[in-house]
Design goal:
The structure is a single chain. The chain has four domains: about 60 residues, Alpha-Beta Plaits, CATH 3.30.70; about 80 residues, 2-Layer Sandwich (Alpha-Beta Plaits); about 55 residues, no CATH class; about 280 residues, Metallo-beta-lactamase, Chain A. Helix 5 runs parallel beside helix 7 and helix 7 crosses helix 12. By secondary structure, the protein is α+β, with helices and mostly antiparallel strands. The radius of gyration is 29 Å and the shape is elongated. The protein has 13 helices and 23 strands.
Length: about 500
Amino acid sequence: MKKFSFITRIPNESGALHRVAKIAKVHNANIHRIHYNYKIDLNTVFFEISSSKEAYEKIRNELNELGYLQISLEPVHYLKFNIFLPNRPGALFEFLDNITSTNANIAFLDFDERSNRHDKLTVGLTLDNTSVVNLLLENLKQHYPMEILEYDAEGEKLDDTIFYLLFAQKIREILGAEDDFLFKLLNDINHIVQELTRLGEDPKKVFESIIATGNTLKNTQGDKFFADVQVINLNDDSFLYGIQPPYGGNIYLVESKDELIMIDSGYGIYHLDMLKLFQHLGINLKKLRGIYITHADADHSGAGGLYDVKSYLHKGTLDIINKTNRAYGSTVEECILEEVYTKLINLFSKFNPPTNVEVFQDKIIKMRGKIPVIHSFKVGDLKFEVLESLGGHLHGQVFFLCPTEGLLFTADSLINFESLTPSRKQYNILAKNLMTSVNVDTKRAKRERRALLELISSLNEELVSEGKECLICSGHGAISIFDENKLKIKGKIHHYSFDS
């Protein structure tokens, strides 16, 4: 017995669901998940069953013969018209017979009682086959006076009776995906619906966030790409570049006279645009000797595989990448929201994680306040420590610290949110809408932040005698300093765009 899933479009009539259950029973299939919510979609029902491969195919064939099986995700069209029926018994029956013959679905019917013309009927139809539209209209015009009110070929004015189909079409526009892939994705999305309904959240708000996320990334490439850049001179031979791409995590470069390292690689979808930006900044990638990854989220590790250098990361980060579940290794590992979000953002952002990797050791070398140090590396004369997080934001997340220069890369555990542009703030809210929380463990995340603030305070006490201060390089937002209990932007921010 294996697990299978299928999506049905069942007519809104008595006994329809019973017929599906009977077919499953006849073929000895066990239905272990079924989900239907008329508030989301009036006709779509999701099934997951356990059966033999042979039984599964028979079930699909019988459902297909009934017209219940959803086998394609072609664009659905909306047609609205007025038709004038003869005033005699059976006129409506004959009209509906024409509609049924084209497999059109009736969205609504309404006789105009306010008019003197009691024979005028307003009809709304949804059709998944454009070739029948002209055929239907020609046939109706031969028998009835009529007037076309509206024809929507894009499905933008459809009601909730075909919500999942419309959602799949919008995903197709973003990804260019085939039907088989979209069916599997819709099944995952439906798991989200169940979970959000249980949590009292609005699934449609989440669907809107999914589409907005995909479109935002798709529409900020090429000539629409932009970035905010900070360049800080660390000493006579070393520079720090902090780059905020349009959306997602920051990319940092630490450059010495002879070598260059990258800290986090950003989204894969921005890779070609980032190469142009590096060239614009005069950065020589031939000096790049490695990428140091703070954590597994796509906006931090998603372009690692596109550079011909080794990536250095925590074993937990590698595990999350391999499992395609950002909740792996945390207390919410079984949460379907985290797993489906990981799949979606990986798809939208063209996730290309590092494959040439070296994992940090997990032995604690020493402590930096409450945070363990597990590894070290050098960039020119700069010595860095790898600090292991408490796992609040993500299992396997690490921080990087150069104590002599006061450079601290805090990933997503400490961010200057006030430095984010309004559009970047809005984009970050989309991610929260999809998961309900960006942290896999909220209590640990708070402890992490407190530990980092204590570490920064300690570092500033050590650096003040040298006329330096701790530079906080967050996973999002501007490079900042901690002053008067607030994160404040350090230096100037230069805006880069395609036309720069």
